[in-house]
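User: Can you help me understand a structure? I only have the sequence.
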Amino acid sequence: MGNHENEMKEEFDLKKDCSHKILAISDTMDILNGKWKMSIVACLCYKPMRYSELLKDVNGISGKVLSRELKDLEINELIERIVLNTAPVAVEYRITDYGITLKELTNTIADWGFVHRQRIISGMKKV
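Assistant: Let's start by predicting it. Here is the structure, written out as tokens:
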């Protein structure tokens, strides 16, 4: 194979790798889309929580939206809904073994967000 053919093959492989990554990112975003899902997952990565705790900790979310997001996350097997044997009956949400695989991603996103916020604040001081 000539040098030009090798370069063309490498370019094709890079485009193919890029296409696969874009498809994987698209699949991920389809599941984790919206303003609240990553925050809910991040909370549940650290401890099981009741609905009212999530409503309080995920600042700004409405009860209706929280219910919808929890159902979506449960359908995708990222969290589980546990009915506790208490009187009155209580419900707790927990991250699943599959969902905990997102913990590193939530930490990375949080770290990036912190750095970005500091960068913006620092930039505003210069203006």
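Now, to help you interpret it: Residues 3-32 form the longest helix (30 residues). The longest strand covers residues 79-84. Let me know which part you'd like to focus on.
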